[in-house]
Request: fold
Amino acid sequence: MLTYGSKTNLPDTQLKAGFKHDGLPSDSETANILFIYTVYTMNQLKHLLNSAQLWHSGRRSSAVGHNSLTTGHRRLDRALHSRGWPLAGSTELLCESSGIGELSLLRPALAKLSQEQFIAWLNPPFEPYAPALQQAGINPEHCLFIQCPNLQDQLWAAEELLRASAFAAILNWCGHHRLADRDLRRLQLAARDQNCWHLHFRASAMSQQSSPAPLRIGLTASGRQLQISILKQSGGPAGQQIHIERDAALFNCQSPASHWPQPSSHSGAGINRLLLTSPINRGGQQRKLISATPGKELH
Reply:
């Protein structure tokens, strides 16, 4: 067997076909090695370029839309890289206050998901109102409402719900609590691994804290409109601002009573009720598990 550096009595013509006199590969073998290395490198580069984690400026990934759900608002769909809500991972909604229209923004997506799948509501700031959910197209029988007495229990419950593979979406209100990076990452990984949509409601002041959430959106009430600011989105640009109309009922509830419109005798039955009503009393120490029943107000 001929190896590098071995001595041989072969003629020069045969040596040139195999190895040089100094034991190094011949020009033909060097070319073959370079060709194989080039093919391998190009395959690795192609794999990297096709990765969903790599952002391509000016064009969208071929996987866009495969695991997303339309928001129900065309301008917002166009601004989002996924052409809708990404249904795997954390979506942070950073609100200046609760009840400004954040649930109205999510209503089309939640209505569609709740028809065949389950949705968990974790520590909502107001009591759920089943008739309003039903009127909004959200199936109350597929909704599970959970109240946790403290943040530690809430984080534990959120991660368990995300890993349960039983829910299409988890709505999680953490308010003004500044969560540790470790907790945010655990929630994001649990949602991503189980292909669950984690809707994380946080105070707008938390926008200054870094987060592993692929999508972060700021929400601000601006008169009769809801201002949507895309603070971060994985695979796409940020900084876009969109304005959508808020429900008249929301705007009127946040205005002085003297500014409320006078309902006509025929419009009373058509008033759109709020999805969530009065603030929940958080004084109790016992964890409450609430299941929605159609036609009955939840307490």
Notes: The CA atoms of residues 158 and 172 lie 7 Å apart.
